[in-house]
Specification:
The complex is a heterodimer. Chain A is an all-beta fold. Chain A has strands at 5-7, 10-13, 19-24, 31-37, 44-50, 53-56, 65-68, 75-79, 88-95, 102-103, 107-111. The chains are: A mainly beta, B mainly beta.
């Protein structure tokens, strides 16, 4: 079956611009997670949704970052006023809850 | 807080060599422990897991045992293949907490023929 998909696979933007990253989870998975992976580091947690609501957003670095999951399926991570330090691979994962998380291929964001 | 420490890489081995990648953790209670693998050009995949002390996770010839007394979850394989070349991440789910995975920094393994 289809796995977790993320679009775009690559995004290059200029400092100060707004970007949206999309995640399509595995059908039927109620939990959805966003992580950020900087070069040479492990993934770091950003936010987790259970259904439509954000159950834990403690990993969002500041108020420039926001994520939504309005219908409990697709999620969008939104970054305002991008900075060069936001450059990283953004990973999305989904699960049935407290179970194996299935990861997408990631979106590589480059802020020039 | 919760954290995972992995041995520094990169690790380079010859085919059929024995592999150990060390992983230790800091967490309260009894977290669930995982090894994820990232093959070149691919996404993260779960390799194996253990959810309680003394459990052994195994998959594709890899093994790891949950050692509460040493807070460790070392990854081992008796005979590595070129196709095992990848980055390996140790991770934990804190007990009773949020579902966020806490990852180590990763260890890059290269296996030469």
């Amino acid at each position: 079956g289809a796995g977790v998909s993320q679009t775009p696979s690559n995004k290059v933007t200029e400092k100060g611009k707004y970007v949206e990253l999309r995640c399509d989870p595995i059908s039927g998975h109620t939990a959805l997670y966003w992580y950020r992976q900087s070069l040479g580091q492990g993934p770091e947690f950003l936010i987790y949704f259970q259904g439509t609501g954000a159950a834990d957003d403690s990993g969002l670095p500041n108020d420039r970052f926001f994520a939504v999951r309005p219908e409990g399926s697709v999620s969008t991570l939104k970054i305002q006023r991008t900075e060069r330090g936001d450059s990283a691979v953004y990973l999305c994962a989904s699960s049935l809850g407290f179970d194996e998380q299935f990861f997408g291929p990631g979106t590589r964001l480059t802020v020039l | 807080g919760n954290s995972v420490t992995q041995m520094e890489g990169p690790v380079t081995l010859s085919e059929e060599a024995f592999l150990t990648i060390n992983c230790t953790y800091t967490a309260t209670g009894y977290p669930s422990l995982f090894w994820y693998v990232q093959y070149p050009g691919e996404g993260l995949q779960l390799l194996l897991k253990a959810t309680k002390a003394d459990d052994k996770g195994s998959n594709k010839g890899f093994e790891a045992t949950y050692r509460k007394e040493t807070t460790s979850f070392h990854l081992e394989k008796g005979s590595v293949q070129v196709s095992d070349s990848a980055v390996y991440f140790c991770a934990l789910y804190p007990q009773g907490g949020s579902e966020k995975l806490v990852f180590g920094k990763g260890t890059k393994l290269t296996v030469n023929p």
